[in-house]
Amino acid sequence: MSARVDAKAARLLALAHAIQEGYFNPDDVNMSEVAANLGVSRGTIMRDLRLVESLMSESKRLQAILRNNPVGTTRRRNT
Question: What domains are there in the chain, each with its CATH number?
C-alpha cells in the first residue's frame, strides 16, 4: 500500500477505536480539534467519521455472523 493509503487506514482505525473505547463521542467532539490533532482538515475528519460509522456497522454485522457460525481450527504449515 502507499503511504497515503496506510495513513488513512491508520486514521480510520484510530477513530473507530477512540469511539469504541469512549475517548470521544462523534456527536459532541470538536471536529476542528480532532483534525488539528491528526494533522488533516476538518472536512477529512468529517468524511472519515462517516466512513468509520459505516464500517463499524458492517463490522458488527460480520462479527455476529462469525459468532453464530463458529469455524474449526487448523494448523498451518510453514513452507
Answer: 3-68 (1.10.10)
